[in-house]
Amino acid sequence: MQEVATRAGVSLATASFAINGTGARKVSEETRHRVQAVAEELGYRPNAMAQNLSRARSSFIGFITDSVATTPFAGEMIRGVQDAAREHGYVMLMANTESDPRTFHDVASMMLDHQVHGVVYSTWYHRQVSTPTGLSGIPVVLANCYTRGDRLQSFVPDEAGGGRAATEILTAHGHRRIAFINSDLSAPATTGRLRGYRKALQAAGIPFDKNLVLTTTPEQEGGYTAGLRLLQLDPRPTAVFCYNDRVAMGLYDALRTRGLSIPQDMAVVGFDNQEVIAAHLRPALTTVALPHYELGYLSLKWLLREGAPTTGEAPEPTRTLVPCPTVERSST
What we know:
The chain is an alpha/beta fold. It has 3 domains: 2-46, 434 Repressor (Amino-terminal Domain) (Orthogonal Bundle); 56-157 and 294-324, Rossmann fold; 159-288, Rossmann fold, CATH 3.40.50.2300. The chain has helices spanning 2-8, 12-20, 29-42, 48-55, 74-87, 101-113, 159-172, 188-203, 220-230, 245-257, 275-278, 292-307; strands spanning 60-65, 91-96, 119-129, 140-147, 154-157, 178-183, 213-216, 239-242, 267-269, 287-288, 319-322, 326-327. Helix 1 crosses helix 3, helix 2 packs across helix 3 and helix 7 packs parallel to helix 8. The radius of gyration is 26 Å and the shape is elongated. The relative contact order is 0.12.
């Protein structure tokens, strides 16, 4: 800073005002431009940590994940947080812990060292988590996960709403015998999507038939095995809602081995909208999208708006359900 001031022929205080955009009345536009040109020529950059201390406010936002950064949906979640940060003049610091407690401790310490304004904590699949420790004193919001008793504000997919929307696509096409291939894992998605499936049937006046609900591993092989079981039913279903797109891909394989076509012989709806699968199956798969961008974006927007209020107390935390939009293609 002193070198910039000397080269520009101004005092240290004037250089500081010009570079940091403060003291507008004390620095003319001509002087400001001259100082900024010298700073650019010398490659000067303000010390962000020192600025945080002087302003008592950080320009950093933390984003801590268990393994989001290595999943197919990483880009949208990260983009959502980053867009919200950029809109408010913040820079995102991201760290991936791979669910290792020691790594999380180190990451939390790093975030505190950088005096982050707050932290978005996220998991790669929707589930309950323990309250993140080691982040005391700064606001924390959860994305795609929640705590027991909702002790922290969280934003999660509306699994039941998504399950209902997926099934309603099929009822809208006139199907009455609709099967559901569900996951055998214990998770909010498993119970929520089943609940939505049942609500859609009820709304359409279709009796629930437990024989049309199969559970399997939520992978392609699980979908293939479950698909062969469905084809043994008499009468067989005319439409199937699959727990996710990988299961739907396995169901496609099962139907082809029996010489059946989609959607003429059986309509299929998936869940997740995993682009590398859904958009490239033949026919392209109708599915329900997980709102990863919205989860990241809304979480950080809430953190900056409500998480650290300038006056009064923070609002009571809630679990906010984010809608899962439908993506209709050719499989229905």
